Hints:
Two copies of one chain form a homodimer.
Chain A: E1 27-28, H1 40-45, H2 48-51, H3 63-73, E2 80-83, H4 86-97, E3 105-107, H5 113-120, E4 126-128, E5 148-151, H6 163-171, E6 178-181, E7 202-207, E8 220-223, H7 226-239, H8 246-257, H9 259-282, E9 294-297, H10 304-313, E10 316-317, E11 330-333, H11 337-351
Parallel strand pairs in A: 1-10, 3-4, 5-6, 6-7
Antiparallel strand pairs in A: 2-8, 7-8, 9-11
Amino acid sequence: MSRFLSDRFSDIEPYTPGEQPKNTNLVKLNTNESPFPPSERVIRALNAAEISRLNLYSDPETKEVIAAIAEVLNVKPDQIMMGNGSDEILAFAFQAFCDKEHPPCFADITYGFYPVFCRLFGLNPEIIPLKDDLTIDPADYCDKNKPIFIANPNAPTGLTLSICEIKNILDTNRDTIVLIDEAYVDFGGQSAIPLINEYDNLIVCRTFSKSRNLAGARLGFAVSNSSVIEDLNKMKFSFNPYNINRLSIIAGKESILDTEYFEECIIKIKENREYTVNELTKRGFSIPESKANFIFAKPCGITGTEFYKKLREKNILVRHFDTERIKDYVRITIGSYEQMQTLINATDEILGR
Amino acid sequence: MSRFLSDRFSDIEPYTPGEQPKNTNLVKLNTNESPFPPSERVIRALNAAEISRLNLYSDPETKEVIAAIAEVLNVKPDQIMMGNGSDEILAFAFQAFCDKEHPPCFADITYGFYPVFCRLFGLNPEIIPLKDDLTIDPADYCDKNKPIFIANPNAPTGLTLSICEIKNILDTNRDTIVLIDEAYVDFGGQSAIPLINEYDNLIVCRTFSKSRNLAGARLGFAVSNSSVIEDLNKMKFSFNPYNINRLSIIAGKESILDTEYFEECIIKIKENREYTVNELTKRGFSIPESKANFIFAKPCGITGTEFYKKLREKNILVRHFDTERIKDYVRITIGSYEQMQTLINATDEILGR
Lengths: 353, 353
C-alpha cells in the first residue's frame, strides 16, 4: 500500500481469481470455462480485415451485439446493456442501486465477488446463511426491502431456485432491485428474463464466459427495463464508455446467433456432468444437484483440501474454497468427456482404488 | 432514471464520447484515432489458433503485455498496471487517491472526463483556469497539497509542459499524487516516465489508442512505483480482475515491440500535422502549437460551430466543444495526408476561396 491510498480503502480485500496458468498440460477445471472453442462463426468473423481496423474505436453503444442478443432472447435492445464481463455489470449494479440507506443482501455461500464489491463501495451487506443442505431458503429473501443479489444457479453449489420462488421474492420486494445473476443458467436453470416486463425491480445478469465459450473475450450483459438499463449506462458512461473492444463486440454477435452450436455444447456439458456425478457418487462423494457447468463435490475418505492438493499434483486444477462451511468440498468444472475421464481415473488413484 | 438509482447519482452527467459512426464514407477526424492500421505483427499474431482459445479466461495479471512494455520503456514489470483503455486507469486513480479530504485539482480546459469521474465518486474538484493563451501556468499547481491531474500534452489544446515544469510541480506536492496523463506524449511531448524512481507521488498514464493504432483494442496503462501500482491493482481486483481480453493482451504486446512501425507512423503524423497547420494558418486560422495527433484550430471569418457544421455537411467529422472559452475552436485529428488534403479543400470551399 502506498501512503496516498484513500483511508477508506485501508482494509480493502480484492477478489482472488482462480489460477490461470500458462502451462497447457494442465487439465483446467477450476474457473468454469467451456472446454469447447468458440463458434466457427466467431473464428471466421475475426478475420484480418477486422483486426486491421483496430486503430478505430469500438462503438460505445455496442449496438451490433445488443441487436443480436435482443433477437435471440426476444427482448428490446433498450432492455440490454453490455459489460466487460458480467463482473463489470455486477460492479455497476452494486454502485448504482446500493448505498448506506440501501445495503445489499445476499447468501453467505455464493459468488465470492459480492462482498468484494461491498468493500469497494463502502456497503455493509446483510449476509443470509444458506440452509444446512446448502440450498437457499427463498423465504429468507421475502420483504427485505433491500437490494437483493442471488446467483441462480448459485455458485459454487450449482443449486437453483424455481421461477415461482424468484417471482415470490420479486413480489415481496417491489421497491428495491432484485438482481438475478444467471451466469450458469443455460446449463439447466430457469431464466427470469421473461419476467422483466412484469417486474420493474428485476435485473438479470448474463455472461458469454460459460455457455457461449468466450471467457477470454470478456462479455457480459444485463437485461432489465429500459429505465434501469439507462441507470446502468449512466455508470458505464461515467466510468469507461468504450468498455467493450471491437473484436469482442463481433465475437459476441456471432456467438449468440449460432444457436445450433450453442445447444450442441450445452448437451455435451450436461452429458459429461451426468457422467461425472454418477462416477463420483459411486465412489462415495456427496454432490448437490447441479444445474451449472460445475459440480460441488464432497469427497469421501479424504478432506477437500487434500483432494484438491492431490489432484493438483496430478496436473488437474479444480477450485477449493477455504471457507469454514464449504472447506470439505471442491468445485469441479465440467469439461470435455476426456477431461472428466482423466479426473475420475486420478480420483481412483488418489483414493487407492 | 429508474426509481431505484441511489440519490447520490440523481444529477450525474456521464461523459459524451465523440461520434463513432458506422458510415465509413466519412473522413473521421473527431476522436484522435490513428489513421493507420495496427502493426503487421498484431495482424499476424491474432490468428485463428488464438481466436479458438477465446473459451479460456485471459490472464488477470496481463503478464505478457506488461513484460513487453517494461522492456521497451525500460521500467520494471511491477511498475506497470494495465487498464481497459486509459479511461479505466484514470477512473481507478480518481477512486483510489481522492476523497472528501483530498479533492483533486485540474484545469478548466482539459480532458473532459476528469469532472465526470468527480461526479461519479462524489468529489468536489478545484478547477484551475488556463491562462488566456490556453496554456497551463505551472505555478498554479505548486504547493496544492491535493491530487493533481494534468494532461500533457493537454487536450484539446495540444500544448505541453516541459519536464522541468512537471518536476517543479512534483517537488512542491510531495505528499499527494500527481498524475500526468500522457495519452498524446508520443507525438512530440516529453514523458515523465524517467522520473518515476525519483518521485513516489508520480503516476504516468498512457494509452495504446493513439500512437499504437489500437483504439479498438482498449488498452491503457499506468507507470508508477510498485506501491502505487499495487493500490491501483487493488481497485482493479476489487472491480473487474479480468479487465483485459485475451486478444488485446496479445495485440498490445506485439504492437509495443514493433518500434520500427511505431516510429514510422509518428513521423507521418508529425508531417501531416505540419502540413495542416501551415495550410490552415495561411487561411487565417489561429492554432496553438500542438505536440499531439490533433490540432485545436480557431477559424477566421466563421464561428467554430459553423465551421464544424459545414465540415459535417461535407462528410468530415471533427470535434467541437460547446464550452464558453473554447467554442470558437474545433479540434481536428491529424489523419493521413489524403484526409488532411480533403479537409483543406473542404475548408476552401466553406470559406469561399
